[in-house]
Design a protein that fits this description.
Helices cover 4% and strands 40% of the residues. The strands form ten sheets. The chain has an eight-stranded antiparallel beta barrel. An eight-stranded antiparallel beta barrel has the order 27-30-31-34-35-38-39-40. The protein is mainly beta. Strand 16 (170-173) and strand 17 form a beta hairpin.
C-alpha cells in the first residue's frame, strides 16, 4: 500500500532520576519523562527508549494505548528501545509509561498523546500489471492454520523441478484490467480434476486459461479479486472458504489477501479455506531478479525455521536427549508464532532474527502466562549481529546482544531470567545435513537444549 504520512512525530524517551532519601529505607523514582519517536515514513511505527541518570534496575512498562482484546500493545523493557506498530488508520493514542523499581513505595506513570495521521493512495491497477509466476523457491505455496503459516504442507525446493509444469504457469494482469491464466500445454493436475494421480497433464476446463476474466487490485484493502469462472492464482482448487471437489463447481469470483513488496517484484497471497486454514502463494514478477536457493551441504547461508514436527525443540540431561521436555506435534499450531520465526544467515556474515509481529514470549520477558505476543527487546530482531559457522569444529557462534537460535532464553551455561541480561555472544553445537540443521547448547547442571531446523 502506498501510505504517505502527513505528520512526523518525534518522541524523546524515558529519563528517570533515581534518588535515595537518607532518612528513608526505600528508593524514590523522580523526574519521569519520555519522548515518542516515529520510526517509519507512514507514522505507524513508534519507539520508546528508556534511560536513567543514576543507579537502580528500573523496569519500564509501555502501554501504547491501542484498544485490543489482549495486552499485545503493552511491552516491558529495561532499555534502550521499545517498538510498536499501529494499525493502518488515522487515530490518536494515549501512550502511558510506568516506571517500577524494587524498594520504591509505588510505581510512577506518565501519559502523553500520539497521533497517527496517514493518507492512503486510492485503489490502483498499476501496482501489479505484468506477468507473474510462482516464485522458484521452497515455500512458494503451502497451507496452514493461519496467514503466512504453511506448517500443514509447503512446497519444497525440489518441487520447483518436480512440479515444473506448475511453476512455469503465468498469471497475467493486463493494463486494461483483464486477467489471463497462461498455462501452456500442461500444468499440475490432481484427482478432483480427473487425474489418476497428481502430476503434469493437459489443463482441464474451465481452469485451462480459456476464461474471460478481469481483476481488481485494491491497494488500500490489500486484496486482489478475479472475476471470471476458471480464473485463479496459485492452485485452481482453492476458492474462498474451501477447495473444489469437481471442476464444474468453479467460482465466478475469488478474492485473495495480497501484499505487494516495496520493489514491486513479489506478491504474497493468502486465501482462507474451511476450518480457518489458509493457503499461501508467493508470486514473482517475470523479469525480476530472483536469488538462487542457498547451497546445500557445507554452507548454512539462507533462512531457517524450526522443523514443523514433534521434537523440534526440547531439553534433557545430555546431548540428543530431550526427556525432560520436548515440543509436541500440537505445538506446531499452538506455538505457530514461534514456528514461523526465521533465523537468517546472510552471505556477508550478518545474522537476523526475523520474528514478524509476534513470537513466543515467556514469563521472564514479562508475559504471564507465556504465549504469542509482540517480541521483547533485545530479542525482537533489532540486534546488529554476525555469525561464524565452523564446519570442522561443528559450531555456530552468534555475536550481538539479542541474537539467538530456537529460544531467546537459552545461553551458554544457563537460561536468562531477564531480557537485560542478554549475552553478547552465544556458541551452539551444530550438525548440518543438507537442508536440516540440528543445534545443541549446554546449560546449567549438564543439561542440553536441542533445536531442529529446516531450511
Amino acid at each position: 500500500m502506498n501510505l504517505l504520512k502527513k505528520g512526523f512525530y518525534i518522541l524523546l524517551l524515558l529519563s528517570i532520576t533515581i534518588s535515595c532519601n537518607e532518612d528513608e529505607d526505600f528508593t524514590l523514582i523522580e523526574g519521569l519523562d519520555f519522548v515518542i519517536a516515529s520510526l517509519s515514513d507512514d507514522g505507524r511505527e513508534v519507539g520508546v527508549v528508556p534511560t536513567t541518570v543514576s543507579g537502580g534496575d528500573v523496569l519500564y512498562t509501555v502501554d501504547f494505548g491501542e484498544t485490543s482484546d489482549d495486552d499485545s500493545d503493552v511491552l516491558m523493557t529495561s532499555g534502550p528501545l521499545v517498538e510498536y506498530k499501529y494499525p493502518n488508520e488515522t487515530a490518536t493514542y494515549r501512550i502511558t509509561v510506568t516506571a517500577s523499581l524494587e524498594g520504591a513505595p509505588s510505581d510512577v506513570s506518565l501519559t502523553k498523546e500520539y497521533t497517527v495521521t496517514i493518507q492512503v493512495a486510492p485503489p490502483s491497477l498499476s501496482g501489479i500489471e505484468g506477468t507473474w509466476k510462482l516464485a522458484p523457491e521452497a515455500g512458494a505455496l503451502g497451507v496452514g492454520p493461519a496467514q503466512d503459516d504453511v506448517s500443514w504442507w509447503a512446497s519444497s525446493s525440489d518441487d520447483v523441478t518436480v512440479r515444473a509444469c506448475l511453476f512455469d504457469d503465468e498469471y497475467v494482469f493486463n493494463a486494461d484490467g483483464t486477467f489471463q491464466n497462461v498455462l501452456g500445454s500442461d500444468t499440475w493436475l490432481e484427482a478432483w480434476q480427473g487425474a489418476a494421480e497428481d502430476g503434469c497433464a493437459a489443463p482441464v476446463f474451465p481452469h485451462d486459461g480459456t476464461a474471460t476474466a478481469t481483476y481488481e487490485y485494491n491497494a488500500t484493502a490489500g486484496t486482489i479479486t478475479l472475476e471470471g469462472t476458471g480464473a485463479y492464482l496459485g492452485l485452481a482448487k482453492v476458492i474462498n472458504g474451501g477447495e473444489l471437489s469437481t471442476p464444474s463447481e468453479a467460482a465466478e469470483s475469488i478474492t485473495y489477501i495480497a501484499a505487494v513488496s516495496a520493489d514491486g517484484n513479489t506478491i504474497e497471497l493468502d486465501i482462507e479455506i474451511a476450518g480457518g486454514g489458509f493457503w499461501s502463494f508467493k508470486l514473482a514478477k517475470e523479469g525480476s531478479v530472483t536469488p538462487p536457493p542457498p547451497p546445500s551441504g557445507s554452507a548454512i547461508e539462507g533462512a531457517w525455521k524450526l522443523a514443523p514436527a514433534a521434537g523440534a525443540l526440547g531439553v534433557g540431561p545430555s546431548q540428543g536427549d530431550v526427556s525432560w521436555w520436548s515440543s509436541s506435534s500440537d505445538d506446531v499450531t499452538v506455538r505457530a508464532c514461534l514456528f514461523d520465526d526465521q533465523y537468517v544467515f546472510n552471505s556477508d556474515g550478518t545474522f537476523e532474527n526475523v520474528l514478524g509481529s509476534d513470537t513466543w514470549v515467556e514469563g521472564w520477558q514479562g508475559n504471564d502466562p507465556e504465549g504469542c505476543a509482540a517480541p521483547v527487546f533485545p530479542h525482537d530482531g533489532t540486534a546488529s549481529a554476525t555469525y561464524e559457522y565452523n564446519e570442522t569444529a561443528g559450531t555456530i557462534t552468534l555475536e550481538g546482544a539479542g541474537a539467538f537460535l530456537g529460544l531467546a532464553k537459552v545461553i551458554n551455561g544457563g537460561e536468562l531470567s531477564t531480557p537485560s541480561a542478554a549475552e553478547e555472544e552465544i556458541t551452539y553445537i551444530a550438525t548440518l545435513d543438507g537442508d536440516t540443521l540440528k543445534v545443541e547448547i549446554e546449560i546449567a547442571g549438564g543439561g542440553f537444549w536441542t533445536f531442529n531446523f529446516v531450511r
